[in-house]
Amino acid sequence: MKRLTFWIILAGAPALLSGQVYLNNASFEGDPQDATVPAGWFPCELGTTPDIMPGPWGVYQDASEGDTYLGLITREDGTWESIGQRLAQTLQPRECYTFTLELAHANTYAGYNKPLGIRIWGGATKCAKSQLLYKTGLIKNIEWEEHEVQFVPKQSIRYILIEAYYKDGSFSYQGNVLIDDISPIKKCVRASLE
After folding, report:
1. Mean pLDDT, the chain, as a whole number?
2. Greatest CA separation found in the chain?
3. Are the C-beta atoms of residues 149 and 161 closer than 8 Å to each other?
């Protein structure tokens, strides 16, 4: 039985690798500046003015990967920031998918210093929040920390959206979350064996 499982995994490995979905500018590379949506991404929430770090707003942490990373905030007036991207391939219902990303917090974000979490949504149309794919707690670590996202779409997903949030959907809070190094989205090994 162990040999059979080994050969099934080995035979399925090329299909798993070829099925990877690469995000455009997954490490948010660009010239460090405030109020700038990174190349390959679009804003999804009114008032979204993300920052390409390090440099702006007193944030000087090194990137986890590459030279730059993304900063998203929430504000006291109840607004928050979110960005999205159209995927190169549609993610299929009832398939298991996984990817990783690096998250951190900055203690020196020009007054937006409280910790936030992120929510990742999937949808069939631009900026749609059809299915919540992943939600973190508050990100308090100032060192980069890898998070693994694993999900099974309930419907076809063509777009992904990442938003900053504070607990229970409240956005009346001045906080920040830093995002870097999103890996390719790939099918879960366990799903291919079912």
Report:
1. 89
2. 59
3. no
**How far, in Å, CA of 105 to CA of 91, rounded?**
30
Q: Say how many residues make up the chain.
A: 194
**Overall average pLDDT of the 160-170 stretch:** 84
Quickly state the pLDDT bin for 45 (edges 50, 70, 90): very high
Q: Which domain holds residue 182?
A: 2-192
User: 16 phi and psi, to 5 degrees?
Assistant: -65, -45
Q: Dihedrals φ, ψ of 21, to 5°?
A: -110, 115
- 13 φ/ψ sector (left φ>0, alpha ψ -120 to 50, else beta): alpha
The total of other beta-carbon atoms located within 10 Å of residue 4's CB is 8
The whole-angstrom separation of Cα 16 and Cα 76 is 44
Q: In what order do the strands lie in the sheet with 131-135?
A: 42-43, 82-91, 157-165, 117-123, 131-135
Could you tell me the pLDDT band of residue 26, with boundaries at 50, 70 and 90? very high
CA 125 to mean position of chain CA atoms: 17
Looking at residue 190, its pLDDT comes to: 60
* Pairing status of strand 175-180 against strand 114-115: parallel
101: CATH: 2.60.120.260
Backbone angles phi, psi at 24, to 5 degrees: -75, 125
CB distance 173 to 81 below 8 Å = no
State how many domains the chain has. 1
